[in-house]
Design goal:
By secondary structure, the protein is an alpha/beta fold. It has eight helices and 17 strands. Helix 7 crosses helix 8. The mean pLDDT is about 95.
């Protein structure tokens, strides 16, 4: 397939720059084999039935952005992509000249860092001192908002660019479909008999990268860490046994589940995934996908086209633009039923 097939016109004013005043007050576009239906996020309560299983990604966004200078005095910006250990990370480093292996950085006028080397587009950095990396980031870092959000992260973002069920620190971008849920909604779903399980996938900055090659199959996915606990595998098996639905909240939950089932039956596991889901993929685990609207020409748009059907999803996106839905991380949501009829 050609990447241009996944392009669409999006007016800039539809890109949500701030979350809605109340968590969960967004709109919801229901996409099914017969078309689309406009609604509100609270309609999720009616869309889900007792016995359905909601799978949430419990990753927590870290304060991954740091500013500082090189030994030479040149200003730098560091965006941590992955925490490797208590002292070491992989990170993007923006500077007028890239730092060399063996050189030192000073971040936030307080934290010394040694450049150990480079791995593709990332720098391997070691933090000097007794404080573990996650504590350093929490004290000196700032929230890494997506590139299409134009304001500097503030107090509102500290609260709202994080799900209410975030537990496992390690993501540099939020699993944004989960941002719509508050504790009241989650409890209402439990009261209805909807079951809830968790996976962890630490979202990387590569999630915002468009596909730049002409042909989709030439694209190389970034790697992300994920974990599927045994309790979630057991919950999915029980859901299947009761002929109920597995509902992935976000493309990250879906990618984790499908990665764990790549070799056959779903297994509890931890590992790295570069799974690239495009139209023609046969889904093994997920029946319904709850997700936000994605960037043109992105791997996530390709994923939802694989899930809901290419024609159906591109129609849904055109409908969303015409009806002025809010797009991307702080935007509205989609409730997509899997379409096995359109390959």
């Amino acid at each position: 397939m050609r990447t241009e097939e996944f392009d669409f016109e999006l007016p800039e004013q539809l890109i949500a720059q701030h979350p809605p005043e109340v968590r969960g007050s967004s709109r919801l576009l229901h996409v099914h084999v017969d078309g689309v239906c406009d609604g509100n996020f609270v309609d999720v309560l009616q869309r889900l039935d007792a016995g359905d299983l909601l799978v949430l990604n419990d990753t927590r966004v870290i304060k991954a952005r740091l500013f500082g200078c090189k030994e030479s005095g040149g200003r730098i910006e560091v965006l941590v992509e992955r925490v490797l250990s208590e002292r070491e990370v992989l990170a993007q480093v923006r500077a007028s000249k890239s730092p060399k292996a063996g050189s030192r950085l000073l971040l936030a006028d307080a934290v010394g860092v040694e450049v150990l080397g480079r791995e593709d587009e990332f720098f391997h950095l070691r933090f000097i001192g007794e404080m573990p990396v996650l504590e350093v980031l929490e004290q000196y870092g700032s929230l890494p908002l997506p590139p299409y959000i134009t304001h500097v992260a503030g107090d509102e973002d500290e609260q709202r660019y994080q799900t209410v069920f975030a537990r496992e620190a390690g993501a540099v971008a939020a699993p944004t479909a989960g941002l719509h849920f508050d504790e009241v909604m989650l409890q209402a779903l439990r009261d209805k008999g909807v079951n809830i399980a968790h996976v962890t996938l630490h979202v990387g900055a590569g999630t915002f990268q468009p596909v730049r090659v002409e042909h989709v199959e030439e694209h190389h996915m970034h790697s992300e860490r994920y974990t599927i606990p045994q309790a979630t595998v057991d919950a999915i098996q029980a859901t299947r046994g009761a002929s109920r639905r597995v509902v992935a909240v976000g493309t990250t939950s879906l990618r984790a589940l499908e990665s764990a089932a790549a070799r056959g039956d779903l297994q509890a596991c931890s590992g790295e995934t570069r799974i690239f889901i495009t139209p023609g993929y046969r889904f093994k685990v997920v029946d319904v996908l709850l997700t936000n609207f994605h960037l043109p020409r992105s791997t996530l748009l390709m994923l939802v086209c694989a899930f809901g059907g290419m024609r159906a999803m591109m129609h849904a996106y055109r409908h969303a633009v015409a009806e002025k839905y809010r797009f991307f991380s702080y935007g509205d949501a989609m409730f997509i039923e899997r379409n096995d009829h359109e390959v």
